[in-house]
Each structure stands twice: as structure tokens, then as C-alpha cells.
Amino acid sequence: MTEPLDAMPEGDATAAAAVAEPAPEQEALPCAEPEQADASPEEPAEEPVGTPAEPDPAAQRIAARRLAEGRRLRRLRVIAPVMILLAFLCWVYTTHYIPSPSMAPTLMPGDHILAMRSWIAYPNGTIPSRGDIVVFLPPEQPGTPEGYYSTVPEEPVSTNAVDRLKEIVARRRNVEVWIKRVVGLPGEVVQIAQGSVYINGRELDHRFYNRQPDAGPDYPYMFGFLPVRLGADEVFVLGDNPLDSDDSRFWGPLKVGNITSRYVRVIFREGANGPNARKARAETERGG
């Protein structure tokens, strides 16, 4: 049976009131309102700091010019050494074409050869070595040069030899330079007899010349078989093919100063039926 409130003890009434009275509400903590992520559409967006200005046309031209100069300098660094090398090679070396069989079998018609210029091959007046194949300016005309140890025989040479010599000279009339092998050196006495070359009275090793440079009685020398003493600036040259060679046997010693270059090697062989050989034959036929 429930007791009335008035009848409850004082302490119990106080506890009951505490239970019945609601707990006071907690005050809400203030919080910051979230910042707006985007600016108001009405307000213009701020320009970023450091935006480059319009490029200066003058500065662009300067930069382009410097870039072009840099490219030219790089190309020059590559091309200049090549050009210097080519100029040096052209200064030191030269090329020639062999039109005749006078140096066969060493050099054949149609051969294109490389030769070293005399200023580097024979510096400071160096004398060519025996066996060197030299390129030289031909004599102006066959004849007896001055300073010979021997003289031309008084008896006239045979008609066959004269005709042969005229044929050789006519064929080589337009050749700017000739090429022969050195067999005699300055100060030596050269004599050709019975198909052999004698230097100071001793037979020369046949590796320096063809074994039969006299080619028989129908091909006598303009200077006969008498010895020839070479001057201090003269060499005696022969073709490797004596049957078809206009050499020192006919016009005498060669002046060292007439040598323009020294043979080095064959670059390539065009052959007897190459364009230059055919042209040379056609010119010979027209000239004959």
C-alpha cells in the first residue's frame, strides 16, 4: 500500500525530488563556422603572383641568334678539322693517270696512282734513292744535254730508232708529267751494255730495272753504249718496259729539280679498256 508523500520522511523526500528533477542541460561549445571554399562568384579571382609578362621580341631575336651561332660553332668544330686534313693531303699528295705501258708490269695503262710531292718526299734537296719511281717534268725535246761525260756517236742512228723515237715523242706530246724508275745517282757513271746496267763499272742488281733495257740491235740508244757521268744534281731513269719507254737512254740524265713527286701506290686500276685508255687511243689515232 502506497504511502502518501506527506507521510514520507524528510530525507526520503529530498532524494525523490532529486530523482524527479531533470539534469540541467550542458551548454554547447562554440565552434567556428567553416570557411567558404570558393570565393563569391561576384568577386573576381585573384591573379597568381609571378605571372610572366609578354616576351620581349628583341630578347627573342637575341636568343635565337645565340642559338644559331652555337649551332654554327658546333658544325665548325666538326668541319674545320676535316677541311684542314683534306687541305694537308692535297698539299702533300697528288694523283696521276698512267696512259702508256712504259712502266709495265709495275704500272699498267689505266692505273690511277697516288704520289707524294717532292717537297715532302725529298725535303731540303734530298736525292732520290735508287729504285724510286719518280714523277717528273719531261725534257723539252730529245737531245744531248750539257755536261756529258761522253758525246753522241758521230755515225747516225738507224732509221728504225729514229722512227721509233718520233713515235714515242708524238704519243707523249701532250703528257704533262712522266714517270720512270731511278737507276743512277748523282756522281755515278752509268753504262748500259748487253741488256744490263752498270754503275761505276759494276753490274746493277736486276731488281732495280728490267733485264733487257737495250731491246736488241733495232732499238739502239741515241747516246750509244758509252758511259755517262751524272752531275751532282742528276739521276738516270729507265722505264720498266724498255721496249716502249722514252727515258734517259734517249734524252740523258734527269735534273733532280724536275722531279715533282714520288710514286706511293696504285689507287685503282681502270684497265686498258677504261674510258681514259680509250680516249688516249682515239687521240693517238687522230694524231697519227
End-to-end separation in angstroms reads 169 Å
What is the radius of gyration computed over CA atoms, rounded to a whole number of angstroms? 53 Å
Per CATH, which architecture of the domain at 94-287?
Answer: Ribbon
CATH topology of the domain at 94-287: Umud Fragment, subunit A
Shape: elongated
Quote the average pLDDT.
Answer: 74
Low-pLDDT runs:
141-159
Main β-sheet: number of strands, strand sense, barrel status?
7 strands, antiparallel
Which strand-content bin applies to the residues? 15-25%
- CATH classification, class level of the domain at 94-287: Mainly Beta
Strand segment tally: 11
Please characterize this protein's 3D structure:
It is a single chain. The chain is an alpha+beta fold and 288 residues long. The chain has a domain at 94-287: Umud Fragment, subunit A (Ribbon). It has 6 helices and 11 strands. The protein has helices at 10-20, 57-92, 118-121, 159-171, 248-251, 275-287, and strands at 93-97, 111-117, 133-136, 178-184, 189-193, 196-199, 202-203, 228-229, 234-238, 254-255, 259-269. A 7-stranded antiparallel beta sheet has the order 1-2-11-3-4-9-10. The protein starts with 9 loop residues before the first helix and ends with a helix. Residues 141-159 have low confidence and may be disordered.
Features:
single chain, Umud Fragment, subunit A, alpha+beta, seven-stranded antiparallel sheet, 28% helix, 288 residues
